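Hello support,

Our group uses your service weekly, and this is the first time we've seen a run hang past the timeout. The protein is Phosphatidylserine decarboxylase proenzyme. I'm not sure whether the cause is the sequence or the server load. Input pasted verbatim:
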Amino acid sequence: MAGDLLDNQGRGDVRWSLPPIHPEGRKYGLIALAVSLFFLIGLDWEIVGWPLLALSAGIFAFFRDPERVVPQDDSAILSPADGQVTMIAEVEPPRELVIDDGSGIGGLSSDTVTRVSIFLSVFDVHINRTPIAGTVQRVVYIPGSFADAGLDKASEENERQHILVERSDGTKVGFTQIAGLVARRIVPFVKPGDTLGAGQRVGLIRFGSRVDVYLPAGTGSDVLLGQRVVAGETVIGRVGARKLLEGVSQ
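Update from on-call engineer: The timeout came from a worker crash unrelated to the input. Re-ran successfully.
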């Protein structure tokens, strides 16, 4: 049950179950299912019906929305997405998260920070979650192209949406949902002024995409290139902590 307290002492009650399907995807899955049944039962065209039936199952799987056990640790910055870490770089934050937007609430500093880029394939869960608890200060949508989300230039050229969250102690974390070759729509669940708990759902990107996270100044990555991360569960950094990590691919 959502909200249950689970810990590393074995306390809690966990049972395996099929993950629910997010409402945003149910209509697409049901449409594909109805069309497949029409070809299978109505027209007896199995050569078309069976592939469409498999497609409907794939759509339902794409929009699955599993529960996550979110670490309750104020220093932790959580992964906002499921996927693979494909880039870790020192960069300047996006202009839209830095400039004065007229709200009277400051954005990120223009100083160089660590950016962790997470690529989501069509097989990953595409529900995105907030890396920290706090208040949503900005949600900025930017139209753009649909180049390969794995390219570095996608951060500046592709259709994207920036989100800035600020904790009660003033710590700010910005992250960006980026559309890709297949992804064609970013769906937000939050707006400026919303108060979020760590790991709370903030939106989704329909079909293969990428999410960039801009860690606070002085914070290094706790994940490695090539590592698989889980939204709302994997700690990708700890506020103010920077250490050298090494990994071996095997």
